[in-house]
Description:
Blueprint: E1 9-12, H1 20-29, E2 33-38, H2 47-57, E3 62-66, H3 72-86, E4 89-94, H4 109-134, E5 140-145, H5 148-151, H6 158-178, E6 183-190, H7 197-202, H8 214-225, E7 235-238
Helix pairs in contact: 1-2, 1-8, 3-4, 4-6
Amino acid sequence: MDTHESGMLAVVTGAAGGLAPAVALRFARAGYRLALVTRPGREASVRATLEAVRAAAGPDAAAAYGADLTSAATTRQLMAAVEEAQGPVEALLNLAGGFSMGRASEVDADGFERMLDVNLRTAVNATTAVLPRMLPRGRGFVAAVAANAVISPSPGTTAYAASKGAVASYFRSLAAEVGKDGVNVALVLPAAAIDTPANRAAMPNADAANWVDPEALAEALLFLATRPPRGRVHEMVVSPR
């Protein structure tokens, strides 16, 4: 049985990405309401996820928002609007991110900045927008998804690995900082590529059986979110086998 209060609000960033549908639906079935956040102008791209959540949990179970999370000011405005419309944010699931290949000798500063923008800054901006709301209440859950590149680097992923490594370091440090104040912070590390339509299209010759199932990551995030205060898990590696 889930240990959270039914009807709590979870914000899911990167809602148009391949991992978000599984995560949103799993949290909705556990009783959470959802705020699904994607880039401005892409709200229609989360329609299928929105409809699936509403079919599973009711017409008021989810709403979609468009916001540029690389802007700290815009992200603060977004979280204020979400709370005004749907109530206190009890969980933040940082799923926004991106991937690019490139040898270290070929990736310029702009390439690194793009990876830092989509992977690190989106998560930091969303997190720092909700923390001032969670800390006075003495509760909340914030999670991020890192990458196998943090565990096992491979050629051609220096910018991506650096950005995801920064994500891992930030959330590990954050867990130590705010855990005593009642905010639960967790990091999930997939130990392989995530089996999403985008990854299958990008790597058509790869064996997806050796990739991590989005459903497994969704289950891991829910487990971390619903741990009791004296039994929290702050980091979890999810392997395909």
